[in-house]
C-alpha cells in the first residue's frame, strides 16, 4: 500500500525515515486519526483543528497546502473511496543533530496513509475495562506520538482480557488509554472536563453535542473511584471506538461495577450517532 511522505506518494516499504528524525529519537511529534464512513469524511475539520492546536502547543510550524485534498487522495489511492476507513496523519519535527532543545529551521517529516477500519456493529459490542493509575505525562491534551504509557497500559488491559485500561489521577477517572469515558447517573451524563489531563476527544465533543440535541444533561465533571459503583451506565467513545457500552469495570482483580445491557441513554446516543455517521 501507498503512503504519503514528505511530499511524495510511495510504496510503504520505500517510505523510510532518518535515524536522526526527532520522531524516531525523541517521539517529538504529533498525530491524528480521522474517519471516513462509506468513503465520506466525518468531523474532518475538527480533526484538522485539533492537529493545528497540537502543533501550536509543541511549537512546531507545519503548513500543508491542500491538506484536505491530500487526505481524500490517500483514501482514493488505498482503494477505500467507498469503504469505512481512517486516515493516519503524523508530523514530526524532522531530521536534526540530536539535541534536547528544538532545532531551528528544520523541515518537519509528514506522513499520511489510509487504512480500512471496522466501523460497524458498535451497538452490539460488549466490553470490560480495567482501572489503573494514570501514569502518563501532564499534557494529555497534546496528541503526542510518544505513547509509551498508553501502550503499556493498553497491553496490560489486553493481557487481562479487557478492551481498555481506564485511568485515574488523584482518585478521579480521566480517560482510557485510547478512548474517552462517559458515565450515566440519574439521567445525567458525566465526563471529565477538558484540560491537560485528557485529550479533547473529537467523538467526546460530538457526543456532548448529541446529548444537548437529545436534551440529555451533560456535566463535565470527573467521576471519582468511590462514585464508580453507583453509576447506572458507562460507555467509551473514540474515532474508531465510536460509542461502546461497558459491562464491567475491574480494579486489580476485583469487579467494581457491572451492567450487562446498555441502558436507554446509551442506546439513544448510539442510535443518534449511527444516524449522523451513516445518514440513516
Ligand atoms: N483519549 C485518548 C488518550 C485517545 O488516544 C483517544 C483516541 N485518539 C481518545 C481519547 C478519543 O479521541 P477521538 O474521539 O478524537 O478519537
From TrEMBL:
InterPro entries: Aminotrans_IV, Aminotransferase-like, BCAT-like_C, BCAT-like_N, Class-IV_PLP-Dep_Aminotrnsfr. Keywords: Aminotransferase, Transferase. It comes from the Bacteria. GO terms for molecular function: transaminase activity. The keyword Disulfide bond does not apply. Pfam families: Aminotran_4. The keyword Transmembrane does not apply. PANTHER family: AMINO-ACID AMINOTRANSFERASE (PTHR42743), D-ALANINE AMINOTRANSFERASE (PTHR42743:SF10). Belongs to the class-IV pyridoxal-phosphate-dependent aminotransferase family. This is Aminotransferase IV.
Amino acid at each position: 500500500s501507498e503512503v504519503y511522505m514528505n511530499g511524495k506518494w510511495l510504496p510503504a516499504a520505500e517510505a523510510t525515515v532518518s535515524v536522526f528524525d526527532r520522531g524516531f529519537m525523541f517521539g517529538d511529534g504529533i498525530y491524528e486519526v480521522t474517519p471516513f464512513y462509506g468513503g465520506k469524511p466525518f468531523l474532518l475539520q475538527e480533526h484538522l483543528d485539533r492537529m493545528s492546536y497540537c502543533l501550536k502547543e509543541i511549537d512546531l510550524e507545519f503548513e500543508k497546502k491542500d491538506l484536505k485534498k491530500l487526505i481524500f487522495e490517500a483514501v482514493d489511492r488505498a482503494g477505500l473511496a467507498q469503504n469505512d476507513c481512517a486516515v493516519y496523519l503524523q508530523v514530526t519535527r524532522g531530521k536534526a543533530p540530536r539535541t534536547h532543545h528544538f532545532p531551528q529551521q528544520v523541515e518537519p517529516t509528514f506522513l499520511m496513509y489510509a487504512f480500512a477500519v471496522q466501523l460497524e456493529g458498535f451497538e452490539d459490542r460488549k466490553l470490560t475495562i480495567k482501572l489503573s493509575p494514570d501514569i502518563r505525562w501532564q499534557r494529555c491534551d497534546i496528541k503526542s506520538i510518544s505513547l509509551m504509557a498508553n501502550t503499556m497500559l493498553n497491553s496490560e488491559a489486553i493481557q487481562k482480557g479487557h478492551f481498555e485500561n481506564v485511568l485515574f489521577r488523584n482518585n478521579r477517572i480521566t480517560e482510557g488509554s485510547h478512548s474517552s469515558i462517559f458515565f450515566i447517573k440519574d439521567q445525567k451524563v458525566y465526563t471529565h472536563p477538558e484540560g491537560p489531563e485528557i485529550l479533547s476527544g473529537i467523538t467526546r465533543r460530538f457526543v456532548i453535542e448529541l446529548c444537548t440535541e437529545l436534551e440529555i444533561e451533560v456535566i463535565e465533571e470527573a467521576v471519582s473511584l468511590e462514585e464508580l459503583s453507583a453509576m447506572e451506565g458507562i460507555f467509551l467513545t473514540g474515532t474508531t471506538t465510536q460509542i461502546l457500552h461497558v459491562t464491567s469495570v475491574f480494579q486489580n482483580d476485583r469487579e467494581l461495577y457491572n451492567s450487562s445491557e446498555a441502558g436507554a441513554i446509551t442506546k439513544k446516543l448510539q442510535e443518534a450517532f449511527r444516524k449522523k455517521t451513516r445518514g440513516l
